[in-house]
Every structure is written in structure tokens, then in C-alpha cells.
Amino acid sequence: NKFFSLGPMLSFLSTPFFLGIVLEGFLFNGKLIFSGKMNISLEWMMTYPPSEHSFDELPK
Question: Transmembrane region positions (predicted)?
């Protein structure tokens, strides 16, 4: 029974650390690791879901 109580205890103890990391990110505006400005690929130009037979040939 003690073994199975370790999971909820670990979740309970890790929640303040997670919230602290999120709060620190909002307060101190650190440098971005991933900016998401990579939307120049073909997938971002298509509608979702893509229509059938969208291409006559493979894109290069």
C-alpha cells in the first residue's frame, strides 16, 4: 500500500515546481528556445484537412 501511495505523492510534490517554472516564465520573460516562426513550409500553406488530389506532382 505504501508503494502505491508514492505516485500521488510525487504528483503532489511536483505540482508547485511546475507552477513555479510557469510563473517564472511569465514574470521574467526569458529568451525563447523555440519561436514557432517556421511556418514557411508547404504544410502551413494548405488548408486543413487538405482537399483530395491537391497536387499533380510531388513538391520540390
Answer: 6-28
How far is it, in rounded angstroms, from Cα 45 to Cα 40? Answer: 8
Q: Where are the alpha helices (DSSP H) in 1-60?
A: 6-28, 42-45
Query: Cell 488548408 sits at which residue?
Result: 47
Give the span between the Cα atoms of 5 and 27, in whole angstroms.
34
- Are 59 and 42 within 8 A, CB to CB? yes
CA distances from 23 to 13, 16, 18, 33, 34 (A): 17, 10, 9, 17, 18
Q: Which three cell numbers stand for residue 53?
A: 488530389
Q: What is the pLDDT of residues 13-57, one digit of tens each?
A: 999 999 998 898 888 876 767 666 666 666 677 766 666 766 677
